[in-house]
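Researcher: Let's continue the batch. This sequence belongs to Sulfopropanediol 3-dehydrogenase, and it's 419 residues. Same format as the previous ones, please.
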Amino acid sequence: MEFLKRAEIQESDQSADTEKIVKDIISNVRSNGDEAVKKYEETLSNSFRPLKVDEDEIEESTNSLSPEIKTLIERVVERVSSFAEAQLECLTPFEKEFGPGIRMGHKIIPIEKVGAYVPGGRFPLLSSGPMVVAPAKVAGAKQIVACSPANYKGGIHPAVLYGLKCSGADHIYAIGGAQAISAMAYGTETIPEVDVIGGPGNRFVAEAKRQVFGKVGIDLIAGPSEILVFADETAEPKKCAADLLAQAEHDPNARALLVSTSRTIATQTIEEVNTYLKEFSSDSPAHESWINMGEVICAESMNEGIRICNEIAIEHLHLHLKDSRSIMDQFTNYGSIFLGADSSVVFSDKVSGTNHTLPTQKAARYTGGLWVGNYVKVATHQEITGEGIEYLADHSTKQSNVEGLEGHHLSAAVRLSDM
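Model: Same format as before. Here are the structure tokens for Sulfopropanediol 3-dehydrogenase:
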């Protein structure tokens, strides 16, 4: 393994400061409700507007959109919803007999109150709202509360707002940052308390989700975007470079990595990235991202390349290989995998239907991305009758004796005495 380009910044050590700032915000919002939320919106976001987005504002905002933009958003909602519906079909309730008189199973129960966080970011991402809200709607949530920063002319960008409404959000609030997560977790005079919070965000949002976990459920903690392009000698450097920069432009802290079994392809891709960047606007985050976070690695073999990919556990793994599908199963740690050079990550970012809220910072080692399953509970049930009572009660009394648990022994024994 050889690095042709290393990241200038290996880690951003802001965790201690971020943790304290967020802890104070959560405590204040929990104690002071709307008053605290408004204070943070004013001081951190320069927003002095009402917290809730009412129907008149939604209608006015919707009317400002062209029919073409509305169609694009509606298509995203339809495709994300369709994929979520297909996933939900895989979650099957069941009940069966596990011995005479012992029936057990599970049910799939929707989570009732969902909080959806949709970042404002540098660009109005049309797909962000549907990605978080549509799966919750498909899952059967009774109430969906959505928060997004008021960073567009004193409100939420019309395209983002329309996406939230089309996806099924019941209440929409122009609030961002850790204060939004806090408000949804604990509730305020205006903002309903929820049961689970989904959606990506900056380091303050991610830290807030980490700190409120337990009080509410969360989907996952998703940070700045990541991509690893794995290329062999058949790859096209121009496509590799374009795919790297598409994710690099999300955030200055985004990570764009190339792993290649071909030194020639790796070198040419670096050249193409530098050529493309000359045409990017000077304020594009892609410049800083590539300089500070970008990496290019030459692998000695395909096996070593696969090992590197699995160790990095990237958010987006894009295989620019001669036959990606034949080795797909050898990759085990990724948020979402893209098979073949033309399966652009951008398609998933926008409209293909798979969710673009995915694990970062090696979280792909233990979780996948946001999906309809984040908004349901798999709850078990059992019914014990007849021979099942005698069998289980006999075992339970004996085990309780060994454990020294008198109450457990009693609860099982009274069933035996009834028989």
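Researcher: Any comment?
Model: Residues 108 and 350 are 29 Å apart (CA to CA).
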